[in-house]
Amino acid sequence: MSNIPTRLADALTTYSKTVILVVFVLTVAIGAGMGQVEQQSDTEQFESDSPAADAQAYIEGNFTSDDGNDEALVQVIQRGDNVLTKESILESLSFQQEIQERETIRRTFTAERPVFGYANVVATAALRADQSDGDGGDGRPTLAEQRAAIEALEEEELEAIVTDVFGPDGNPRYLSFMPASYEPGSTTSQAGSTLVRQAINVEVQNPNSFPEPLTEAQLEIREIAQDRSTQYSIFGFGILNEEISQSLGDSGALVGPLALLFVVVALTVAYRDLLDIILGVVGIIGVLVWTFGFMGWANISFNQLLLSVPVLLIGLSIDYAIHVFMRYREQRAAGEDDIGIRRSMSLALAGVGAALVWVTVTAAIGFLANLTSPIGPLQDFGIVSSVGVVAALVIFGALMPAVKIELDGFLEARGIDRQKRAFGTGGSAFGRVLSGGVAAARRFPVAVVVFALLLSLAGAYGATQVDTSFDETDFLADSPPEWTQNLPGPMAPGTYQINEDLEFIGENYQQEDNEAEVLIRGDVTNEQTLRWLAQASEQAGGLDTVFVGPNGADITSPLSLMQRTAARGTEAAAIPAAERTDQQTALAEFAQAYDQAAGEDGVPEGNVERLYDLLLTANPQASQFVYNADGEYQAIRLQFGVTGNARIGEIADDNKDVATTVESASGGTLTATPAGDQVVFDKVQQDLLDTVIQGLLITLVAVFIFLSLAYRLTGNPASLGFVTLVPVALAVTWILGSMWLLEIPFNTLTGTITSLTVGLGIAYSIHISSRYELELRRRGDVWDAMETTVTGTGGALLGSAATTVGGFGTLAVAILPILQQFGIITGLTIIYAFLASVFVLPSMLVLWTRYFGPSGYFPGDDNPPGESHAESDEQPAVDAEGDAS
């Protein structure tokens, strides 16, 4: 088995042209799948199976309007020192006029009152005061009539109307147009809202399926607002989804070229040779072609997590390239010129090949640990990253060496010298810095290990303090810095505003669809059901996470709908029966039935099923809170709006408490399941944390077993596998401690950091350990072996670490905050892994050699080299990278 690396290296270098042809054909075949890769940017893909997710799906599938036509709401928030002045109200009406003049926007409107806001409330009240035959606010006066009514008002008249319609005795629905800070009856407000209602004639379960015409209309509304002198904040799901999707493409267009540019610069420093730089870039492109081609054939969509994969593979690819090319340069500079190019590459591949295979396997193990996660995109991340690592091994372990053999041979045959010095060797400044790890290992190895362990204890404490985060806003881009606007067209990012708008809306208004839900099933027609709802609603109203506007807590249930419908029915009952419309008759009938069933506290006790029947007739929108299938009432729901700055975990806990209250009050008659995005996202957060812990444990155990077996099978003590892994485990604690210090939470990207640290970091340790074992047997002296290892392989590690850190560092300029965090934390991961391998691992290897490894390699040792403390050396020793001693 020990001769396999040598034989494989000989075959690859002997039949270099065949290798080039075979790999090229494979690249073309696999790359053909690139055109099939689709983009997916919604947050629902991160959800896993859970009672909350099932309940949410039940709500979305069954609680719909009777006519089957649902609405999409666009919140238009006008901002200013005081939006209740005549000028501001006229501005709002003018803005509405401009919206309604756009055909692309108008054709998405609902049939009933598609645009209505605080300005319309004031204007219709002004018309009602001026016209005895007005509609009382429920008719449809034209915008021109509304403008005329406002313009005709004196300041005192306007203030009187504002005080009336937005006062404590005004219509509670109208107060919802005012911000949470508004004092009912006040004539000043820093914000006022207008709702634009769009008709959805198709079922929308997935943000990606949100109708494109509605999205285009919402974007056009925002464009109109941005062109006006007044400041507006706009929110709609079309805008939200568009910005999430756009940020994915813009981030890739910005980060990709910058990462490639940095790699070229770094390779220029490391290689100092144009041909090798070109080979490195071509090889990276080949790896990316394999990876994205595989995604196409495997039907894996490109999502936010996978945006980091190209940068990851760029770093790994260069790591492979540098180790192969630098070892090749070392072989050529070792006084063995007569063996020629082909033989030098064969020796280089034989020497470093086993380590590259081990690095590939351990990195793949780290990435594939994400398969234990119930989160689909994390599983995709693990699979795609693993395929990319294997592609890097094929491209840089076979194709690029074969191409380099042919090109170097072609050039040297024409008198062009192709011998170059390996980075970090030859007494360079970098070599002297790297020798610091050897000096520390020689003088105080125990102190180095103890210091590293103490750092790890501090890091382990920090790890327990790291938060976990999953929220839609994680995938929203910040406003790009001004310098990005000067970039070439394809790289220049678009406009991003919704993050800022959401922050303002969340602080001042109930954000559309930002509600917690409780799905209630069972005997929902029980005579006490409405009283149980009243208890749960009262509890919800006192929660800190529930949004409280000028007219109180935002809580909706069949009971609250009954109360509002009964109030409208009382007004309808005042109209003579002969003059009522069918709708007014239904309202009046419901109000009468409600009053008859109501107890002393106003909550009905009994006749619940008939109240449901009458409610659905009088108020068709109630079908969104009462579900009847085949004549049987099967479910109801309780919904309460939550504040924009509440933590998801707190919202989920409060929601669960309300659900528990319903079940407890009903004595098991009803089952209540918490639902809503916050509860679902809280489950995702828990899944993320589980992924971090499980991924780390699985990766550490699997890598330890693999390394122990690999070293043992190549003639080395299995304990060398443990020693190789320890510095990486230390680096894991350092990076988790850094996340705590930098206040970076575990999210969908940083949640992969533990397995990624082991998967990437083990490469540095493997290269050092394997080279050390090789040099130890070759040179027979621990210090000569360590010096050669750290300055030779350490130099290559420094070059690969620099390019990898730089590649991930470019993510810091990404417009997505989670990508910025991932870039920073992954860059630190590489730095820590490098430092651990060249400054901590040498001391551990020295201690291992003295107490557990082969004996006789320290000056003054009595035992001859090759005699191990743990086992006899009856068989010829074989180095860890495939060379016979």
From TrEMBL:
Record carries keyword rRNA-binding: no
GO cellular component terms, A-Z: plasma membrane
Residues covered by the SSD domain: 278-406, 687-847
Source organism, top-level taxon: Archaea
Main location group: membrane
Gene3D superfamilies in the record: Multidrug efflux transporter AcrB transmembrane domain
Pfam family, one: MMPL
Membrane spanning stretches: 251-270, 277-298, 304-326, 347-369, 381-403, 444-463, 692-713, 720-742, 748-768, 789-816, 822-848
Keyword rRNA-binding assigned: no
Name this polypeptide is given: Predicted exporter protein, RND superfamily
Keywords, alphabetical: Cell membrane, Membrane, Transmembrane, Transmembrane helix
Compartments it resides in: Cell membrane
Biased composition (Acidic residues): 873-885
Membrane topology: Multi-pass membrane protein
Organism per entry: Halovenus aranensis
Signal peptide: none
